């Protein structure tokens, strides 16, 4: 499904933060099948793929995205170790007007990968290109814009200044977001549990 050669060949830009874009990241002979098998999503917000029923082509794409070969390509391009990191995938079928607000991804994520599934004639394709921004202040101050067209991919390394966003839009806008999780959230959770049991131990005289 994925055209790993095209993804591997994409040039990584370092400014304003590490990112790369790929047109036709899904092979031409698979793209229409994948789009047709995108699961039916009737609401806005993120949706876990496990809560949907994708067709076989889209299910195969999900398997490839979670595979070791794709992980290796992303790790090599950003020169970051991704082995052993958990993967989280969310789907979107509809956008709210607030979804494109300028933001950065949280430090619980190491790398973000976005993949789009909208046809050229769809209104969202022309109006809601995702912009790589120089700052948090101006949606028009951008270095790259990725139309949410079928097969377009954007990947970036999560940094404190990984500002991005798109123009407001309400309606169908199909996308997939994959994150390699940094482990930070899990570490914080374990630390909270450790502090809780240490506190309990002190209360009953065990520490």
What's the quick description here?
The protein has 207 residues and is of the alpha+beta class.
How are the SSEs ordered, and which strands pair?
Blueprint: H1 4-9, E1 19-22, H2 28-36, H3 56-65, H4 68-78, E2 87-95, E3 109-116, H5 123-127, E4 130-133, E5 142-146, E6 153-157, E7 164-165, E8 171-181, H6 184-203
Antiparallel strand pairs: 1-6, 2-8, 3-6, 3-8, 4-5, 4-7
Overall description:
With 207 residues, this protein is α+β, with helices and mostly antiparallel strands. The chain has one domain (4-203): Sandwich (Jelly Rolls). Helices cover 29% and strands 23% of the residues. It has helices at residues 4-9, 28-36, 56-65, 68-78, 123-127, 184-203, and strands at residues 19-22, 87-95, 109-116, 130-133, 142-146, 153-157, 164-165, 171-181. A five-stranded antiparallel sheet has the order 1-6-3-8-2, with no helix packed on it. A hairpin with an 8-residue loop joins β4 and β5 (142-146). α2 crosses α3 (56-65). The longest helix has 20 residues, at 184-203.
């Amino acid at each position: 499904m994925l055209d790993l050669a095209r993804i591997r060949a994409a040039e990584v830009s370092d400014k304003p933060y590490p990112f790369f874009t790929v047109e036709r990241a899904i092979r031409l002979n698979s793209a229409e099948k994948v789009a047709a098998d995108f699961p039916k999503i009737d609401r806005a917000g993120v949706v876990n793929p496990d809560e949907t029923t994708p067709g076989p082509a889209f299910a195969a794409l999900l398997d490839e995205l979670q595979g070791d070969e794709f992980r290796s390509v992303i790790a090599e391009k950003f020169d970051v170790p991704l082995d052993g990191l958990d993967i989280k995938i969310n789907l979107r079928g509809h956008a709210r007007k607030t979804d494109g607000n300028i933001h950065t991804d949280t430090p619980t994520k190491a790398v973000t990968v976005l993949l789009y599934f909208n046809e050229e004639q769809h209104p969202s394709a022309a109006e809601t290109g995702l912009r790589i921004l120089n700052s948090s202040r101006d949606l028009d101050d951008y270095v790259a814009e990725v139309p949410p067209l079928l097969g377009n991919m954007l990947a970036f390394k999560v940094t404190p200044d990984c500002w991005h966003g798109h123009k407001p839009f309400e309606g169908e806008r199909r996308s997939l977001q994959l994150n390699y999780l940094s482990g930070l959230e899990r570490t914080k959770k374990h630390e909270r549990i450790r502090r809780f049991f240490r506190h309990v131990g002190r209360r009953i005289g065990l520490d």
